[in-house]
């Protein structure tokens, strides 16, 4: 992966912070909005610098959270009114559209 700049980190952080309760976004959505070359950059930022962000609102394009996060992530989303079906968040219903 190419070196991630401070500006890219801040762009990802701002976009994640802008996802409202009851909505989700994918790593790819955020990467596209931030002008990044890969959703993996968003994943890296989320792993290294997201403890103060609504990290649970960022999911893979499949709608299915990573297995090691699934229970906690789906519980937090459910508390915001996002209901998963068979462990997947229906993106058509809950996907956030950035302005």
From TrEMBL:
UniProt domain Methylated-DNA-[protein]-cysteine S-methyltransferase DNA binding: residue ranges? 10-82
Which EC numbers characterise this protein's activity in its record?
2.1.1.63
Question: What protein am I looking at?
Answer: Methylated-DNA-[protein]-cysteine S-methyltransferase
Check the record and name the CDD domains matching this protein: ATase (cd06445)
Q: What's in the keyword line of the UniProt record?
A: DNA damage, Methyltransferase, Transferase
Q: Any idea which GO molecular function terms this record carries?
A: methylated-DNA-[protein]-cysteine S-methyltransferase activity
What species is this protein from?
Answer: Mycolicibacterium fluoranthenivorans
Offer one example of a GO biological process linked to this entry. DNA repair
What the entry lists under InterPro entries is as follows: ATL_DNA_repair, MethylDNA_cys_MeTrfase_DNA-bd, MethylDNA_cys_MeTrfase_DNAb, WH-like_DNA-bd_sf
């Amino acid at each position: 992966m190419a070196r991630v700049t401070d500006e890219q980190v801040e762009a990802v952080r701002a976009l994640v912070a802008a996802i409202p309760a009851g909505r989700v976004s994918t790593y790819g959505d955020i990467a596209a909005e931030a002008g990044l070359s890969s959703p993996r950059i968003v994943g890296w930022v989320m792993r290294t610098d997201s403890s103060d962000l609504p990290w649970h609102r960022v999911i893979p394009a499949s709608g299915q959270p990573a297995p090691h996060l699934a229970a906690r992530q789906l519980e937090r989303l459910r508390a915001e009114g996002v209901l998963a079906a068979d462990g997947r968040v229906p993106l058509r219903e809950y996907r956030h559209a950035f302005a």
